[in-house]
């Protein structure tokens, strides 16, 4: 594992376009090792056609986000669940 990742908060804007909440604040569970933690703790790699978030525990891919004009693709298969805090007044 190397240290050329950037802070996952750099993905907040791309993820916010798909979700109505800041997913980096959500608690996720890694499908690979079972680690549970804030999505903001993932290691984000942005030197590909999209963004790749990896588990800081086992380096498994948690999510991928790829954008094109007018659309986005989101792959969350590495996350078994997301716990998202919602505003009280929904």
Could you characterize the architecture of this molecule?
By secondary structure, the chain is mostly beta strands. The chain has one helix at 12-18, and strands at 6-7, 27-30, 36-38, 43-45, 51-54, 61-68, 71-75, 79-83. A five-stranded antiparallel β-sheet has the order 1-4-5-6-7, covered by helices on one side. The protein has a three-stranded antiparallel β-sheet with strand order 3-2-8, with no helix packed on it. The longest helix is centred in the N-terminal third of the chain and has 7 residues, at 12-18.
Compose a concise summary of this entry:
With about 90 residues, the protein is mainly beta.
Structural class: mainly beta
Q: What is the molecular shape?
A: globular
Report the biggest beta sheet as strand number plus sense, adding barrel if it closes: 5 strands, antiparallel
Unreliable stretches covering 5 or more consecutive residues = none
Helix fraction by DSSP (H/I, runs of at least 4): under 10%
Topology as H/E string?
EHEEEEEEE
Q: Assess the beta-strand content as a share of residues.
A: 35-45%
Topology, number of strands: 8
What order do the strands of the largest sheet run in, or round the barrel if closed? 1-4-5-6-7
- Gyration radius, to the nearest Å? 13 Å
Number of helices: 1
**What distance lies between the first and last C-alpha atoms, to the nearest angstrom?**
42 Å
Mean pLDDT across all residues, rounded? 89
